[in-house]
Structure formats: C-alpha cells, structure tokens
C-alpha cells in the first residue's frame, strides 16, 4: 500500500514521475502482481491542453489525471492526504451507521451498557478511526472526532439533550480515541 500511496501522491517533474511509474511497474512484474491503471490517477498534473502536459501510463494504459483521488477510502489532494475530506466522510459514515444500529435497537434500553459499548467499539468506532493513523491530525481535528464520538455515545445511552449529562462522557475516557498530534 505504501508504494501505491507514493505513486498516487507523488509530486515532481514529469520525468521523475515517469521514472517512478517505471520502477513501480518493474517491481510489480518482478514480484508477480500488477497495479490496476484504472484505479490510479496522476495528481497535480498540468491540464491536457497545456504545453507542459505529459500523458503518464502504466503497463501501456494511460492514467487519468485528477485534483483529488480516493485510494482505499483515503482522499488525497495534490499535496497530501486531504484531512478535511477524510474527517467529513468518516464523520458522516460513522453517524449514519450509528443511527442505523440505534434504530435497530442498539441502546442501553435493549442491551446491557457493557454489551452496547462493546458493539460500539467493534462496529462503529473502527469506521470513525479508519484512515486516521496515516493522516496528520491537529487539535481541531481531534476535537471534531471527539464531537462525533460523543454524538454516537449519546445515541448509545440515549442522552440527546446537550445538558449536564455531558459530564458523563468526560469521565468515560476508555471510550475516547487516543491520537497523537504533530504540531508543525
């Protein structure tokens, strides 16, 4: 996967990217696998009408160009992982999944709280966490993740008003996602 991420997010001259594509092609053929050119894109490429445009290919198939590209559910822009798009997608997906499970009875009224929290940890929390390990997280992103997780936990324990019960979640640190923040 790391080779493909580098392939998808490489920035450099057309000659450098072409060389990298050649290396990826040689490596894959040597080890007996192939990348799918239809699932690849060249990011940060000049427009096709530009004199600087160079059509890139892999295994003789032309690669498409894009400003943003999603690989294995992780969105990339022209420079890096698009953290804002990742968080937006993860948040929407997680809240939708939690709402669906809640409508099917996942709450402390139907299941014991311990079982409900384990179901949350097994099925919902991974949806929220997916892709975060390779993203650069900031304090603001961490706060957004906490807000989404708080909303999910509120559905789990059926607390929908933003009142003094909010303290319940501040005391339940075992539910919180641990992440590191790199400040640049």
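-> sequence recovered:
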């Amino acid at each position: 996967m790391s080779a493909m991420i580098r392939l998808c997010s490489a920035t450099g001259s057309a000659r450098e990217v072409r060389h990298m594509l050649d290396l990826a092609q040689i490596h894959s053929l040597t080890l007996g696998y192939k990348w799918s050119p239809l699932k690849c894109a060249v990011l940060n490429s000049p427009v096709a009408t530009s004199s600087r445009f160079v059509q890139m290919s892999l295994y003789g198939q032309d690669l498409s160009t894009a400003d943003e590209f999603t690989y294995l559910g992780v969105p990339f822009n022209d420079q890096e992982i698009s953290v804002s798009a990742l968080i937006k997608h993860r948040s929407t997906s997680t809240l939708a999944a939690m709402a669906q499970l809640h409508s099917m009875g996942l709450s402390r009224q139907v299941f014991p709280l311990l079982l409900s929290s384990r179901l949350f940890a097994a099925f919902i929390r991974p949806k929220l966490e997916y892709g975060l390990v390779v993203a650069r997280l900031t304090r603001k992103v961490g706060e957004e993740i906490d807000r989404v997780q708080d909303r999910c936990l509120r559905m789990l324990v059926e607390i929908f008003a933003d009142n003094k019960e909010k303290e319940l979640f501040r005391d339940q640190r075992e539910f919180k996602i641990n992440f590191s923040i790199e400040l640049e």
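The first strand starts at residue 41 and ends at 43.
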